[in-house]
Design brief:
204 residues; alpha/beta; Beta Polymerase, domain 2; 4 helices; 22% helix; extended
Length: 204
């Protein structure tokens, strides 16, 4: 299997030399990193080429690496039932640079791209209906970014007096605690109350 994936990687790299940045074999999976603006060309080739035939887009997802200049990765997972192979196509972008939509290549990309936009804030240029999908209307921020606060910005509750859902700034009922992840038993005294009785019983 590794040999077949290596051959496929070499084939894709040769055919798309202007678009491919790197081809890697990670574990038993082929990963192809491409230029952002070439993603439509790459996915069209992988779908239509007789040696590829990756007809199914299984998902589109994001990843956030805040330490990088291009902090976001958009990942496309493709499946070829004809050749029983998978390929992972990746590109990098930042918060301000849009990624071309691939909804014209795979219809299923519509909801996947909406989810990636909602969770990470990656904008997909020319998407037919780019709006939030998992969060509520008027939601602030993008929850899967590494710099998004764990508490969020607002809390939602139903108000019995107003008979409606209300949004309020987050209020923490107790101070935030920093845990040291040590064993809870390390703070116990060397001798517990009652131990002296056990010692007496043992000596008698």
């Amino acid at each position: 299997m590794d040999l077949a994936l290596r051959d496929l990687g070499d084939y894709i790299e040769a055919a798309l030399s202007e678009a491919v940045i790197a081809v890697d074999l990670v574990g038993d999976e082929l990963a192809v990193t491409v230029h952002r603006e070439r993603i439509v060309r790459v996915l069209t080739f992988l779908r239509d080429d007789v040696n590829c035939q990756f007809k199914q887009l299984m998902d589109v997802c994001g990843a956030d690496y805040p330490e990088r200049e291009d902090r976001f990765e958009v990942v496309y997972n493709l499946l070829s039932l004809t050749h029983n192979q998978r390929v992972r196509v990746k590109l990098r972008t930042d918060a301000a640079s849009p990624v071309p939509t691939v909804t014209g290549v795979f219809n299923s990309a519509n909801w996947w791209e909406r989810e990636t936009w909602d969770m990470y804030g990656v904008y997909f240029r020319d998407h037919p209906d780019l709006r939030r999908m998992l969060t509520d209307y008027g939601f602030e921020g993008h929850p899967l970014r590494k710099d998004f606060p764990l508490t969020g910005y607002v809390e939602v509750r139903y108000d019995d007096l107003e008979k409606r859902v209300v949004y309020e700034p987050v209020k923490l009922t107790q101070d935030f605690r920093s845990f040291d992840f040590l064993s809870p038993w390390e703070g116990i005294q060397a001798q517990l109350p009652g131990d002296e009785k056990a010692e007496k019983d043992g000596n008698s």
